[in-house]
User: Fold these one by one.
Assistant:
Number 1:
Amino acid sequence: MSANVTIADVAERAGVSQASVSRVLNGKASVDPEIVKQVRRAVAELGYTPSLAARSLVRGRNQTVAMVVPDLGNPLFQGILKGVSVAAAADGYRVLVADTDEHVDDEEATALEARQRCDAVVLCAPRLPDDRLRALVARLEPVVVVNRRLDGAAVPQVGIDYARGVRELVDHLVGLEHRRIAVLAGPAQSASNAERLRGIAEAEAADPGLDIRVLPCGSRLDDGFAAADAVEAERADGATAVIAYNDLVALGLLAALRQRGVDVPGDLSVAGFDDIPLAAFGTPPLTTLSVPRAELGAQVWSRLRGLIGGASDEHELLFQPRLEARASTAARS
Amino acid sequence: MSANVTIADVAERAGVSQASVSRVLNGKASVDPEIVKQVRRAVAELGYTPSLAARSLVRGRNQTVAMVVPDLGNPLFQGILKGVSVAAAADGYRVLVADTDEHVDDEEATALEARQRCDAVVLCAPRLPDDRLRALVARLEPVVVVNRRLDGAAVPQVGIDYARGVRELVDHLVGLEHRRIAVLAGPAQSASNAERLRGIAEAEAADPGLDIRVLPCGSRLDDGFAAADAVEAERADGATAVIAYNDLVALGLLAALRQRGVDVPGDLSVAGFDDIPLAAFGTPPLTTLSVPRAELGAQVWSRLRGLIGGASDEHELLFQPRLEARASTAARS
DNA sequence: TCCTGCCGAGAAAGCGATTTCTCGCAACTG
DNA sequence: CAGTTGCGAGAAATCGCTTTCTCGGCAGGA
């Protein structure tokens, strides 16, 4: 079994020194072809596998990165996780997940702890306030921040241009004659929520005819479901369209509206965000903003790999969401 | 920074030996309270954090387990992952995910590679044929297999009693006067699919009045969506109910049927499996079989921990799914 | 022909913990 | 009072690699 075979055994069997075995295995320097052959044979015969623990100790590297997310149940994060994971795997890296379950105060501890086990970490949509986050990020060092703008930190960031996306969505709705729009806000500490709201504010400022009301909500299915009452109140008050924090919220809302017999998009247009796989299969199919999750994940890995390799990088990369107009939004009737 | 502080530094600062520092940190043996105080102070002052790499080398343990899944996009696996992850975290363990993306032939390599980095692995719904799986499992050793029955392997298994669940579902439909039922099968290599089919066969055998047709399908949203034609053909042929491989498939099917103007449950009853969060929010809310994902995950961890601790365990644990009758199934009209 | 330089391979020194071994000292027994 | 016995703490070995150091041999230049 590979378990107990050490490099010493291989060396002995091949009749060479451990150093040579190591050289062969790592392709360092030039080694006598004969020795190479001997070593390879010995390795094969013994079924030798280098101990990763020993290797990490001496190299100070793990070949593992951590991804810290606020909620693994969110399809957006799942998509990014998968993207990072696939890209990293191609370079022999694995990823370890840590779910903070939206507990802001666990974020630091969790991230720090994860960092101990890994060569780098990707912080997904951290909920921490700016100053604490900046401090944290400094201690995490090889780190990339996803979906959270953080000024004044020498850290690569990759995110989604929610502000612009939401403006696009508003434009879409305005094009459909909607003027009174309700917005279902996400978690208060979510930076991407703030970005969305910023976009909303910009849109409102640009078009005085608009009347947008922001309602507190959340990020999950049941949040959307529970928001139905508030939405109905807005509708009674003249709102004809709703922009939900994300697709999950939108789908939850859709379900609740259906129960109440509200027709979407006849009585009310509803739009989401993220274009999760289910969005296209909703009732009705959901108008939403599509974000390239997998590609984003790949980009994150590419940055991360650079940092691990010692590069320094503090660029910010913003993906532009693309409007996916489907049946849940329609011209005001 | 914790990065460069070693136990030697702490020892020096505290004026004691490394051994004592180690003892204090691990709470082994009894140490002079005075020394304990010194060490703690030195640790705090230096901001010392033990190197996990060094620790793993000497202990031969990682405090990390791997979870290998065929598709992270599946909410069932996400739920189990979360369950395992939370339970493991409570014991200071982290989990590393490896997604084989339904590539059967990568399963062995992926699992083996993951095992190298971890103290144990949980194999989720492996698609490997029995003999290869048995061989693999032997090499993985501390391992628990989820959602796959594997006879003749000394390995704990935890799963879901799909056969019984599906019989329950059939009973439910029969109670609603359905006799001709279409079944959308999952991935061919999926063991849980085989279990479901076994349940179907049993139900059919028990009730000669039943006429159940199995259609090939898949495990994802679009599989269900794409199955609509086949389902319609069955319906034209007299089928009045459909049992989908899982909720994702059911939801995809629902979407396609809606496009076609088929009324569910009026024209056709549809049931799923797993009770994913979205099931209750479908149109109509989906009748499904609920499985306790988080609890299952916790059980998996509990088994795993035992194994890591050296216990031997080859019990099989089967969770009984619970019928969640909702609006997508109704009496045949 | 002799010296310098280079190259390849083995010996040995870490990497940073844990754990066994050893030893001194105090307490306990007969 | 002498001879264990026990206990606490430091020294050193160990885990399994990588990498530097060292040295012998061989080729090229003077």
Number 2:
Amino acid sequence: MEPPAPPRRVTIVDVARHAQVSTTAVSKVLRNAYGASPEMRARVRRAIDELGYRPYAAARGLRGQTYTIGVMLPDIRNPFFPEILDGITSRLQGTDYQVFLGPGCNGEKEEARVTEAMIDRGMDGIVLVAPVSSPTRLEHVASVVPTVVIGRHGCSPVYDTVTDDDVAGAALIVSHLAGLGHRRIAHIEHHETDPTRIAEMPNAQRADGYRRAMRSLGLADEIDVVSTSYTQQGGYRGAKELLGRPHRPTAVFAGADIVAMGVLEAVAEAGLSVPGEISVAGYDNTTFAAFGPISLTSVDQAGHEIGANAARLLLERIADRHKPSVQVRLSPTLVPRRTTSAAPE
Amino acid sequence: MEPPAPPRRVTIVDVARHAQVSTTAVSKVLRNAYGASPEMRARVRRAIDELGYRPYAAARGLRGQTYTIGVMLPDIRNPFFPEILDGITSRLQGTDYQVFLGPGCNGEKEEARVTEAMIDRGMDGIVLVAPVSSPTRLEHVASVVPTVVIGRHGCSPVYDTVTDDDVAGAALIVSHLAGLGHRRIAHIEHHETDPTRIAEMPNAQRADGYRRAMRSLGLADEIDVVSTSYTQQGGYRGAKELLGRPHRPTAVFAGADIVAMGVLEAVAEAGLSVPGEISVAGYDNTTFAAFGPISLTSVDQAGHEIGANAARLLLERIADRHKPSVQVRLSPTLVPRRTTSAAPE
DNA sequence: CAGGCCGTGGGTAACGTTTTCCAAAGCTGG
DNA sequence: CCAGCTTTGGAAAACGTTACCCACGGCCTG
């Protein structure tokens, strides 16, 4: 009842009329394009301010850019992803680009739906965080719109990648534990069967890094991997299995903090003390891990750096779609906390 | 180097030509509009499939809708918000609408930026979760685009609201604690000075609910509120202050789970046992609270329901912008866990 | 059998912006 | 003083879709 008449939006035509110039001139000012004198720029800008004009992105998209960047996160609940997002937005600060997030995508179908939706909306570039789709699919997306992939170890000429060195990260944990005197160090991994995923996904790399580190430390015989999933549930089930072993491990390296949460739950249920009787380590350095009473030893991936690099690469690729693709690999760091200590006995 | 030629997108004209009909006809089929025979529908649909056509949202937006809904969350890190998001998307399942999230907005300025960006992109509707902007600002947004506000107790003729009954929620906690024999029940609130916010924001309602419940239980003399902020830091500081009291409380009701986390940290530092020497309760029933080793007593807001209701109201408002506004208020439920027990002595 | 209505289909003008031209005017150097 | 360049500004045609309106035929009704 209050405002039954939705007021018409101010358009570029209104601005042009108000400033007594052509719409072309206004457009040039908006885009900082060549061919406008300083006086005209000032004049147009004043008109824009006076009228409160804002360019309509849908219309811009029809001819040029939409100044929109899409980010796809696999799971908002994982506290590691906001870090990446912060890195992206901080790098985009001051540009005309606006970030929008595609909501929870688990599974290839959902991913396809969201990426298609982003393409349909004419987004200027997209960032895919830990996508599960096939490389073919990723290349298809990247061939249509500038794309940066985070957290996948495959590489392609059509998209850039930013990854954490998961093999090195796993090694950090294993040598930390070995340095504390542990020998029976078990690992809980995310089950993977697809061969390309085994090569590209971070979880597989972590498991691989675990195995390699164990071997290089002369602990090849102690290698013990349980294959569940990167969820709290998965950690719980994995830990149950490990605790049931005749010769149970003295340390568990969970492939992700969320998995470690499940491990801690199972360990508490079994009445074992952490780290006195069993040490537990995670991966990702989430807020969960940092939380005082939990204080989980973990690996920090520098999410902020990852995001900032991804945004930088994306801007570069938007500027030149045919530049050679870049792979950025960042080194993780160990964050020792109170869930790991010297091995018992 | 691989695909230097970005392939032209399939347009409605291509489909029309391929199906040997007019573009108008294709458009009608796309929108399930009146004036197309079943045969034509089938024919057009086949052409769409064969060509892999997808409508270009930017172009649609210029004339009609963009089939895009924007959701603004104040903080992705808060585990309560994904619940709401799930509720929204589940209700939108099967419709043509796609949800996009505006990224982290703390503060009025950021909120304004994101809402403007959504409006500029021609979004068909937007959902604001716990916005901090002034009512005037909210009404302005709502006057331009269909809007639903979640978690604000103010009401307006131009937008619908979905809220949790925070007063009742606070009462649930207080009577739970009183029922366990506690009398010195303290509360940690989010500091608020702005008068309209005091009336509308959930945190203020919770503090108010706490006071009322205390009074109605004959504990008016025991009312003890510390004003910090809804952060882990805030909880920590608030707890420090409470623990320093000559007559320290036997129970602390933190206004949010994240605040309770800080409380637990401070309590652990002080060497007090929970719930033996002091009971702690939160609000929101986040995954944090549900996590076994923490097991925090909390209040569940039925985030999924909240989101689903918001989406429903938004669809209704998109269908009829002038329908009278609706306020939905949901009742919270208590989730007792292991951080609360009988009062000492 | 005339007049009107309904079901079906298409022509065409928007929508708000960018982009590609082109024209005019102001320089420069010979 | 003229030929060519540079700078400044605008006219007009896209971009892909939808909304509005009109035309055509068939059928019902009186």
